[in-house]
Design goal:
Layout: H1 2-29, E1 41-47, E2 51-52, E3 57-65, E4 71-80, E5 85-92, E6 98-106, E7 111-117, E8 127-137, E9 142-148, E10 153-156, E11 164-166, E12 169-174
Parallel strand pairs: 1-11, 2-12
Antiparallel strand pairs: 1-3, 3-8, 4-7, 4-9, 4-10, 5-8, 6-7, 9-12
């Protein structure tokens, strides 16, 4: 009888230790359900000029560099100083060809927004132009800041949530 109790206790102990080892393994090594691309995608703003004067019109192209990660969509939000500039038009580029929300300009909040996607099952990869934005200078003698806001979002294959890493910004000198 004593021998049976010892065997049952040993088997129970091994079972509990084995179960704990499996739990630790799965918690520690199996949490990642897909590739993580957080912080890898770069947005770049490129202007046709760096120096302008009042009433000049210039273009800013919004580039996306996927850093080798397949991108499925982008909600691009470009902000600027409304005391110095006004956005006059926004047109999509060809890098993400599906237009979910056409280019919108909200002059009162100095925001340009465009929501684009890839033709699935072929996500975008590499570097390409997302949008072309035309600005008009409405003041003189200062510097204008154009940038992608923290509300800009990029989606990729295998990742949940926003994976934009490096936001875009550019400074334009106004003479």
């Amino acid at each position: 009888m004593f021998k049976n109790k010892v065997i049952i206790s040993l088997l129970s102990t091994f079972f509990i230790v084995g179960l704990l080892a499996m739990v630790v393994y799965y918690v520690k090594f199996r949490q990642n359900t897909g590739p993580s691309h957080a912080g890898t995608i770069k947005v770049q703003l490129v202007s046709t000029t760096s120096t302008v004067k009042k009433n000049d019109v210039f273009n800013v192209d919004v580039y996306l560099d996927t850093q080798g990660v397949p991108v499925t969509g982008a909600d691009i939000r470009v902000r600027y100083d409304p005391a110095k500039l006004v956005a006059t038009s926004v047109t999509p580029g060809n890098f993400l060809p599906v237009v979910f929300v056409p280019g919108k300009i909200n002059v009162s909040s100095a925001l340009v927004q465009l929501v684009l996607g890839a033709n699935l099952p072929n996500p975008a990869n590499g570097t390409g132009i997302l949008a072309h934005i035309k600005f008009k200078v409405i003041s003189q003698g200062t510097r204008a800041h154009i940038y992608t806001g923290p509300d800009t979002a990029i989606s990729t294959v295998g990742s949940a949530g926003n994976v934009m890493g490096v936001p875009g910004e550019i400074f334009i000198t106004i003479q």
